[in-house]
Amino acid sequence: MEKMEDLEKDEDNQDQPYVDPDEIKRPTSFLRWIENYWYHYKWHTIVGAFFAILLISLITQIASKEKYDLRIMFSGDLKVDIENSDMLVRLPDATAGISEAFEQLMTEDYNGDGKKNAMTYGERLISPERQKELLQEAKDKSVETNEHWVFLYSANDYNDSIERSQTLLITGEAIICLMDSHSYELYSKQSMFARLEDVLGYKPEEASDEYSVLLKKTEFGEFFAENFEMLPDDTRLCIRKKATVGVGKKFDKVYDANVDVFKKVFAFSAGN
Among 73, 121, 160, 249, which is least packed, fewest CB within 10 Å? Predict the structure, then answer.
């Protein structure tokens, strides 16, 4: 019986080529190390690679981040028809116009990167009183859709805008400021702005108080009226105080550049 089984096995293996056991290729020590490493440290490697890629991406973004000579902030309402449902989208248009106007005052590349440019941060800040007026106006004009910006703007939006603006001012990301009356009143209470006389060496005749001037009353504001057309008429121009804590020579240079352009606003003449 055993012989019959052996014969059957021999018949089954007749078509299979003979392989010498000594010729079978076995994994090299390096391949065995790779297999062993992957078995024990697969997830450590995957997680480590993920964070390495993330770190490289962040470093690349920081290195490629554009550096601006001027740091400007607008905070306030906008002059846009209430029936214009995309009014919130218009904020970038307003900030772009502000940047373009101030860039015309620059006579030098302050940070030496080969460009003369300004960055304008924009925060839509509508006072609670103005919000009630807008809601009533929306009802009067039969603007009833819940998707309209008037109905979507909330107390949380208001508070978030205040927080973001304060952060920009405190950190020095915003130096030259354009603010409507409501925003100006909020931040002036925190003693964030420099006296015009301390910055300019004199108090301009058109000054609204010791710290600000109505933008559209300046010759600069009048000349670039088209750039500022969406800003409310009570928009004030002012400049934050120079920070004294947690800053160094790099910030001093940026601040001095912004002061230089701020002075040029008051020296601006359409005839020159």
Answer: 249
Other CB atoms within 10 Å distance of the CB of residue 125: 23
pTM of the model: 0.72
**Residue 60 pLDDT:** 44
Q: Which residues pair with 58 in a beta bridge?
A: none
Model pLDDT, residue 90: 76
Contact of 123 with 107, CB cutoff 8 Å: no
H/E/C letters for each residue in 203-253? CCCCECCCCCEEHHHCHHHHHCCCCCCCCCCCCEEEEECCCCCCCCHHHHH
- From CA 161, how far away is CA 28, in angstroms rounded? 63
Q: Using CA atoms, how far apart are residues 153 and 241, in angstroms rounded to an integer?
A: 31
Long-range contacts from 244-249, C-beta under 8 angstroms, 24+ separation: 247/172
What spatial distance separates the first Cα and last Cα of the chain, rounded to whole Å?
117
Closest CA to 193 of 215, 204, 177: 177
Phi, psi of 179 (to 5 degrees): -140, 140
- Residues of the chain with pLDDT below 70 are 1-30, 33, 44, 47-66, 84-89, 145-146, 244-248, 272
At residue 164, what is the residue type? R
Question: Residue 196 phi/psi, 5° resolution?
Answer: -60, -40
